[in-house]
User: Fold these one by one.
Assistant:
Number 1:
Amino acid sequence: MPLVRISLLKGKSPELRRKIGDAIHRAMVEAIDVPQHDRFQLLTEYEPGDLIYDSEYLGIARTNEIVIVQITLNAGRTLAQKRALFRRIAGHLAALGLRREDTLVNLVEVAKENWSFGNGVASYAPPETETA
């Protein structure tokens, strides 16, 4: 059910981009119980100047290796689960050689009925009832 947007500057190899997506999905499976086969990701590369970020916001030194991750997911995770997710994403990306400081994650929580996975059906909404 999560929809993951991954934004980074152009120049990463297709292999590294795939590994970044794999690492983020693995973190979601481990930390917030996302099913293994529930994977929907949009990876977008930007030209220099088209990905704008503050290189020192909150005292964190960021570089052009920044990876911005926005995850839209159902509301309801605990603060502990969210913190675990942030740590796991940063850790898994660090294992790929990316700096923890260059990992920015944003969660967008929505109600379950806000998803349609196909066929024009509200996938998680209660079934419609017929009215007489």
Note: The two ends are 34 Å apart (CA to CA).
Number 2:
Amino acid sequence: MLPIIKQEKTEAPVAPKKKAAGSIQFDFAGNKIHFVSLGCPRNLVDSEVMLGILLKAGYEPAQEVADADYLVINTCGFLEASRKESSDAIDDTLRARKPTAKLIVTGCMVQTHSDQLKNRFPGIDYFLGSGDVEGILKAVQATQKGEMISNARSYLEAGEVPRQISTPKHFAYLKIAEGCRKRCSYCIIPTIKGPLKSKTKEQILKEFNLLLQQGTKEIILIAQDLGDYGKDKGSKNLAALIDLLKTMLEVKQQFWLRLLYLYPDEITDELIALMKSDERICPYLDMPIQHINNQMLKSMRRATSKEEIIATITKLREQVPGVVIRTSLIVGFPGETEEQFEELAQFIQEHPLDNIGIFKFSREEGSHAYGLPDQIPEEIKEKRYHKLMKIQSKMSKKLNKSRVGEKLQVVVEGYHPESKLLMRGRYYGQCPDIDGMVILNEGTEKVSGFGQIYTVEVTQALDYDLVAKVLH
């Protein structure tokens, strides 16, 4: 893993030029580059493309901010909390960089809040739009302050564009689409990223096979919504996604294929049958439902009802042995009554889900929900958030306890962050960076290398993690 992309996860540099009257000129001698990538895995893929372009052009990695001549921060602008994290990262970088270092800021927050960033951080040297990824070399080599922010709000790799994978060698993300065609009332992703754009099947398969050739053992398919893949090109239902998955599975090689994200109405019988037919598709689904009360779902402009969501969960539990389901929920949406919240709390107890990301409603300007009446006070959101988190912690531990004694295939990823006497890994039901881990406290002498898969036996359940011993 290249440490120069911190995710919270060319030719030689141009020689100095004479200063033009009335302009600010840069005078950089070094060629060390350092990245900070914020937000979702799709952002990380864009950062990896930018890094690949710069490494190919002769720039070199710097592990620390203070050592870098060029600093790139790929921002997230999805929620107020995301924008705060991005602003904090810019502030920290400006304080830590050496006086001669140049800071380039790119990503979603640049696309939507560049004026705000310019006013707050005059020390930023160059702004690059979220769809202008391939302009990174021009941004780095610019001899004066500037920007490149086009109408291309999202980026999809096409053709032979270099990409430097920054994740550990055994897993990588593969972005198959950008943008979104849905219009959920709380979300501004369509505004930030633009309409749905699907990558061609040929380009995806080229990247897929290259990752396998490089030794990648787990490939995580990502998009704002996998189920909409190909619909911008006329595909109906899940036809394009199913066809893509079937073609990938024709490769006679061992790998894990993980799917992020699919909405409840997109979990079709055909997809379930495909998952059952080949164990290389992880029986793991990230299925955002956001709420369970029908009035809330309607107000959120979601496509499914409570009854349909429960039917989908029930079908998955019945037909896909050992399936792991992750979801996301919103508390404090405008108009949410105490009774509607309690209905949500009851739901996660009656229909336990393995992993839940719980979010307090963020009132985003530009979203339909921004102007809805009956906005919920922050203190009530906070109370509901903590109550739901407490319930889910108990339910998660209960589900984990059901795995005690089970034998699992686990990819061992390294030492535990708190002790080198322990190791950590993941089984198919744990996605990198967002889910728990398998803590290995026995038999670790049998591990000959990280990034390899071992058989373990689960010996203990924690709230979100499993404890296991390595068998072989």
Note: Residues 9-28 have pLDDT under 50 and may be disordered.
Number 3:
Amino acid sequence: MEVILREDIEKLGNRGQVVKVAAGYARNFLLPKRLAVPATDANRKIVEQERQAHLRKEAKLKGEAEDLSKLLNGVRVTITQKAGENDQLFGSVTAKDVADALAVKNFTIDRRKIQLEEPIKQLGEFKVPVRLHRDVTSEVIVAVVKEE
């Protein structure tokens, strides 16, 4: 069965692409979740209009993310934590802590966009990437200092 994808689906295709899938997969998964529509001429026109609107919206979001990236690049935040011997932290610094520290500096960034591979468990300075958009990534310097 041929369907037109309305969303990007990993290992299947991108938005607006016509793909051939099993009838059961289309009927039971793609169509009920509105991820695809049957490949008819009328649907092709509708999906093309949706795709154009999505591209305009995506370009606007990317532009905003690039502007925010310029402001955010090299911003330094300091987080104080209790630490024991050998500069080992009691607990850890997570993406939520970094997002809260950025909020104090008037940057509203979702914690899921902060790309911390694993929580910080040492004192020191760390460069933490912040993925603002699929194509736009910025770096924030996080200084973890010992609480007196």
Note: The first strand starts at residue 2 and ends at 5.
Number 4:
Amino acid sequence: MMKSGTEQTRVVSPAEWVAARKELLKKEKEFSRLRDELSRQRRELPWEKVTKAYVFEGPKGKETLADLFGDRSQLIVYHFMMGPEWKEGCPSCSFISDHIDGSVVHLAARDVRLVVVSRAPLKQIEAFKRRMGWKFQWVSSNETDFNYDYQVSMTKEELAKGEVYYNYAMQQFPSDERPGTSVFYKDAAGNIFHTYSSYSRGLDILIGAYNWLDLTPKGRDEEGLKHGMAWVRHHDKYDAGYQVDATAEYVQPAKTTDAGCCSGEHKS
């Protein structure tokens, strides 16, 4: 698909290979220690109390943010890019979401609930979820300010200006919806606190397939792609005719109809 670094790779004796591998192992261990330290600092971030009431639409009806915790004290929300009237969810968010179902039971064992949230109405969400074969909890924030408050949906005013506040800075973004993950904690008294949010490349850590690719000679093989994730498809769209257009930019999924496209518009 793309030129890779394998063309320049040296072929050496087994002894030389082991020596080179040991040198890299030193750096890998250093990176692991740095990652552990960064994770420690992340856990030491101050918290902010959530004072706004959010009510989501789920398969069993209305659910508050507190309800999303279930019987756990920690909640991870993945902000999935799927806006009102979209025909399907974002391919990149779907790539991340393909990794969720296998994690849910393990997270629950560590006092964590993971829930996916989108601004699309529940009926749209449920249809796409069935198509993808996913089982995880996925609710609609269509009637709340939740997506706007956590930087993952564009208001009409932002749309008019062409810039959005995303990843803690003003920038352009090619879609009405944006990806992210937010973490919350609920204490024994029922108080809820926002402890962390991450966006953009900060979400790479959630993609197990990327970690596998990083081990291979070609790596992610995204060099030369105008949009790095242009190769990603919904998992039911890889076929014998699969090709990647290196010049393609991100394109927001089409809407089912222009009518009702502002369903769930920000009300503040």
Note: The CA atoms of residues 62 and 151 lie 23 Å apart.
